[in-house]
Here is the input.
Amino acid sequence: MNVRRRLIPTAAVTAVTALALGTLSACSSDSAAAGSTDKFDVVASFYPMAFLAERIGGDHVNVTSLTQPGQEPHDLEISAKQTAQLEVADAALHLKGLQPTVDEAIGQSGVKTKIDAATLTTLETHGAEDGHGHEDGHADDDHAHEGEDGHEGHSHETEGGKDPHVWLDPVKYAEVAEGVGQAFEKADPDHAADYRKNTETLVGELNELDATLEAGLKDRKTDVFITTHASFGYFAERYGLSEEAINGLDPESEPSAARVKELARTAEADGVTTVFYETLVSDDTAKTVAKDAGLKTDVLDPLEGITDASRGDDYFEVMQSNLKALQTALGSA
Here is the structure.
């Protein structure tokens, strides 16, 4: 059963209005609070987790996102109201290491079902300061790649310096989805069959996206792309690309003059045409680097949140937009 809201019969629209207000498409901070509905109440840390909860839970869940649309998730500070929501929620879904204040709040809360997406797939090390991504195509998910320390002590890394951006690899995101589905089945067994069906549908769509991305990025002129920070490490590894990140895993730091010169040399040597920036972080650094190197700029969205500026209304639409941007930049369009 595919539970995308546009497929809900007209007669059911009124019944799901409260749910819609609390989910991602509504993008409202006035959503039904966790614990105030007769549904399975899920508090999600930020967009990629909330998207999974909504798609897998369907009509049976009320999803409350701790990170509001347009808010940079790494900057989130948990409010007293949100702490209270956690206490009455049926489940909390987060990706440990991405938002330390969320991790702490969930850890200290009494919520019965705590789902850490970081435990549902294999995390790896990306985003060393030299910016070089892995170029060996599909990753071996049975082990983590060794990498340089690069940046440390900021919230873009999980424990041990591992890269948390697993949702940008559809295969890894599907692994997380399967784990979330199993957790929902266990926590709310009355609706287990629906959760299982919804999970299977979502995983199927993610596998289709993987195939689309692989086919769409073939016959390219270059494997190298430049981003503001190293959020596309898993994506690059999956499709045999090389991500050159201006700031490693930290989008807020300023690159050194030496790094800017190095990127200009790389761009010239590898036929790079574009410096990518993202929707929730200032594009000043990307524009500076692009100007110095004589390159264009464009958006490559790490999907940490959906806003009016996003090139799509949900995960799948934005990933398709990312594909188009990369095809143009890499010469495969």
